[in-house]
Each structure stands twice: as structure tokens, then as C-alpha cells.
């Protein structure tokens, strides 16, 4: 079972009072495990500004990207890829994180502080990776934070075609249990690529309503046994 860390001394305020026009809702605080879990449970997530020495930025998007568990689009070619690759959970979390943080990737945002924070969350049993393997090599995957019925996806990567998509298919399967109707798979912001896989946008107020239900659920068995 995950280990609950000490409570955060920081308060993000009432999410219902956030500026309805701005995704950025907070600046500062820290990346201690208690702070991160408190943020996710209230609908926030951190992201560095990109400038050395700046405080951490905290976001709660006005339009939130979520993937309905019954809405994943699996093409015929992706079905073939699912049969080609092997998927595993939490056997290479650090490698997945580092692949997502590769500075050669465009729009890279995972800095050393973020890396250390999520390694710590993983050690405590809250951050998880879903990995795609081919012939014994790690070729794709994703990582995120699981608390109750929320899985907050952070980043994904691939070194072979469809490898990250196969990890997403596997994740949806892991979340598809008796509580699936109320579980929440959060991807932060939607993109054209994510929309092609079934990601939709919902308004902040609706996201927060669903979040309150989701975080009260038990963890999926695969993550509670981690």
C-alpha cells in the first residue's frame, strides 16, 4: 500500500474560487510528497516556469483533458501493436521518467526538481509507470500519479511506433474494474494527438465534481499492491 506522507503546510485555496479565465492558479509552495498529493486531490498539478530560480507554477486548466475509460479509440493498427508489445507496470519507473525528460524532446519541461519529486512519490507508492517492451527493450511508456480513483497522467514517450499508445491501452485496462464508471483518467490538456485517441475536454467545475467522487474510491488493485 502507498505510504501517506506528512501533510503539506501549504494551502492552494478553494479551487471553486480560481480565476475562471486562467489555467495558472498558483505560484510557489514546494514539491514535497504531501504538497503534491494535496494538489492532485484538489485538481492542481505543478510545472516549472522554464527559468532558473523561478518558483513552481501550479495549474488547474479551465478546460481539462480527460480520457473516458469507455471512450479510448483503438484503431486496427493499434490493435496489432498491442499484440506485438509486452506491457509491464512499475518495473522501470526511473527509466520511463528519464525518457520523458529527454532534453532532445521538443517542449521538454521535466527538470531535476520535478524528477526528484516524482521519484520520491514513486518510492512512497503514489507515482507509477506503465511500460511497453519489445524483445527485452523498453521502447515506450507513461507515468503518472494514482490516488483513489484518479490517475493523473504526466508524460509519455515512445521509441517505436505506437509504443506509448500501447501503454495507454494497458493503463485503461488496469483502471477498468467495478469502479470504472467513476474513475478519472486525467491528461491535463488535450492535444490533437490525444483527441484522436478519445480524450475530451470538460469544464473545470465538472472536473472538480468528478474528482471529488474519484479520490474517494479505492485504488485499482495493481497500484494498491505495488
Automatic annotation (TrEMBL):
Q: Where in the cell is it found?
A: Cytoplasm
Q: Which reaction does it catalyse?
A: N-terminal L-arginyl-[protein] + L-leucyl-tRNA(Leu) = N-terminal L-leucyl-L-arginyl-[protein] + tRNA(Leu) + H(+); N-terminal L-lysyl-[protein] + L-leucyl-tRNA(Leu) = N-terminal L-leucyl-L-lysyl-[protein] + tRNA(Leu) + H(+); L-phenylalanyl-tRNA(Phe) + an N-terminal L-alpha-aminoacyl-[protein] = an N-terminal L-phenylalanyl-L-alpha-aminoacyl-[protein] + tRNA(Phe)
Which SUPFAM superfamilies does UniProt cross-reference here?
Acyl-CoA N-acyltransferases (Nat)
This protein's UniProt keywords: Acyltransferase, Cytoplasm, Transferase
Tell me a GO cellular component: cytoplasm
Q: Does the keyword Acyltransferase apply?
A: yes
> GO molecular function: any one?
leucyl-tRNA--protein transferase activity
- Where is the signal peptide, in residue numbers? none
Question: Any keyword Transferase?
Answer: yes
Gene3D superfamilies, alphabetized: Leucyl/phenylalanyl-tRNA-protein transferase, C-terminal domain, Leucyl/phenylalanyl-tRNA-protein transferase, N-terminal domain
One matching Pfam family, short form?
Leu_Phe_trans
Q: By its UniProt entry, which InterPro entries does this protein fall under?
A: Acyl_CoA_acyltransferase, Leu/Phe-tRNA_Trfase, Leu/Phe-tRNA_Trfase_C, Leu/Phe-tRNA_Trfase_N
Q: Which GO terms describe its biological process?
A: protein catabolic process
For this protein, the Enzyme Commission number is 2.3.2.6
What job does the chain carry out? Functions in the N-end rule pathway of protein degradation where it conjugates Leu, Phe and, less efficiently, Met from aminoacyl-tRNAs to the N-termini of proteins containing an N-terminal arginine or lysine.
Family label: Belongs to the L/F-transferase family.
Designated name of the protein? Leucyl/phenylalanyl-tRNA--protein transferase
Amino acid at each position: 500500500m502507498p505510504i501517506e506522507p506528512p501533510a503539506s503546510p501549504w494551502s492552494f485555496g478553494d479551487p471553486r474560487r480560481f480565476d475562471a479565465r486562467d489555467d495558472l492558479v498558483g505560484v510557489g509552495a514546494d514539491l514535497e510528497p504531501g504538497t503534491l498529493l494535496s494538489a492532485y486531490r484538489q485538481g492542481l498539478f505543478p510545472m516549472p516556469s522554464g527559468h532558473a530560480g523561478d518558483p513552481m507554477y501550479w495549474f488547474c486548466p479551465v478546460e481539462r483533458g480527460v480520457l473516458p475509460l469507455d471512450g479510448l479509440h483503438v484503431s486496427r493498427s493499434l490493435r496489432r501493436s498491442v499484440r506485438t508489445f509486452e506491457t509491464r507496470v512499475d518495473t522501470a519507473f526511473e527509466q520511463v521518467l528519464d525518457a520523458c525528460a529527454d532534453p532532445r524532446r521538443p517542449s521538454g519541461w521535466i527538470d531535476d526538481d520535478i524528477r526528484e519529486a516524482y521519484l520520491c512519490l514513486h518510492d512512497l507508492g503514489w507515482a507509477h509507470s506503465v511500460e511497453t517492451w519489445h524483445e527485452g527493450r523498453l521502447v515506450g511508456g507513461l507515468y503518472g500519479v494514482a490516488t483513489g480513483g484518479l490517475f493523473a497522467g504526466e508524460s509519455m514517450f515512445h521509441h517505436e511506433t505506437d509504443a506509448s499508445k500501447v501503454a495507454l491501452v494497458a493503463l485503461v485496462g488496469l483502471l477498468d474494474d467495478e469502479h470504472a464508471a467513476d474513475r478519472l483518467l486525467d491528461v491535463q490538456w488535450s492535444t490533437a494527438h490525444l483527441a484522436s485517441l478519445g480524450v475530451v475536454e470538460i469544464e473545470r467545475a465538472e472536473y472538480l465534481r468528478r474528482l471529488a467522487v474519484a479520490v474517494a474510491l479505492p485504488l485499482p488493485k495493481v497500484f494498491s499492491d505495488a
